[in-house]
Amino acid sequence: MNTTILRIMKAIKLFMLDLDGTLYRGIIPIEGAVTFVKAIRASQRRVVFFTNNASKTPEAYIEKLSLLGFEPGQDEVMTSGDVTIEYLCSQRKGEKVFCLGTPSLLDSLEKAGVPLATIGEEADIVLSSFDLTLTYEKLVHACDLLRNGAAFLSTHPDINCPTETGFIPDCGAINALLTASTGKTPRSFGKPNAETAAYIAKKSRLSSREIAMVGDRMYTDIALGKRHGLWAILVLSGETREKDLVQTPRNEFPDLIFPSVKEIIPYL
Question: How far is 45 from 205, CA to CA, in rounded Å?
Fold first, then answer.
């Protein structure tokens, strides 16, 4: 067996797993993914399911992952929405937020005590996310607020979301529209940003070199690991293709690359 892979695997105590494109596509598990998670647990290591997709609550992801056979614990599922909410509650407490997000995200914000604005109301912050209920009216109001000085925050920067039928526009695509109209660029909180790495380290009580980020996207999953000291493991089952790595700088290159999570199993 490859001794470099074995050395890295020996250091890992927590696998931080991306969902879309890494464990499943839409409602279809990627081959070997359920067995991979079971193998992590059998090796006495821990797992966290982390997605930048904040369109659903952690409870909804727990239900989906359970139906697909992954058997997640209540404290094992986290989203970019959780990281964003922690920031809003600790650093921008009491500030009013106009959110381009799904009812699930709005409900999570409200439950956390974040004051929410509706269309036509003033707000201190525009928060963009993967909004499957997006309307032109919402976009117009968000642009008006940004031009009038509201802060621009975003749960995550992903441009596309992989599904079983192909890619659909994600939060990053919505951000590009808002930026094109207003000239404002957002501060994001999901992968690959420092807030997410700090959030996981705090929750797990582990050092960065005891955590591995496993995912299919260079600019979110792998960038999180490379920028913040986590092991970065790329799988080629989602957005990234091997040809995409040709021009990747050395300092941004994944620590390990596998066709899918199935091929990691023998090294656990």
Answer: 14
How many Cα neighbours within 13 Å face the side chain of 232? 23
- Complete domains list, the chain, with CATH: 3-52+191-267 (3.40.50.1000), 81-187 (3.40.50.1000)
Structure confidence at residue 1 (pLDDT) = 73
Half-sphere exposure of 109 (CA within 13 A, CB side): 30
What percent of the chain stands above pLDDT 70?
100
Report residues of the chain scoring pLDDT below 70. none
